[in-house]
Amino acid sequence: MSYKNLDIYKMAFNLFIKTHKASFLLPKYELHELGSQLRRSSDSVITNIVEGYGRSHYKNDYFRFLVFSHASNDETICHLEKIIMLYPEFSSEFEVLKTEYNSLGGKINNYKKWVKENWNENNA
Question: Which domain of life is it from (predicted)?
Fold first, then answer.
């Protein structure tokens, strides 16, 4: 098995692509400020899933990186909320992303619980 088989990875990767593209709708002066923060936090959701999976032989390390991924997901939602308030002309695009990141956050949270209760060295 690979991290690429995880639903949370697939969803996070697809959302990163959408979010990355959507960030370029922002005004030019915002691309290196809020746009960059949004791109980095959405990327962090994925990279923490991948890095954690690479350490999945050690349950506590794996869980810790899933916590980081969940926190980055929350950070991404916060950036999206700021964009929605600051740039209402783009709100429909960013509202869709926010809804999808909320869903992903729930899935990451459920997976964290599953790992905490069921993961062992044989899963790695």
Answer: Bacteria
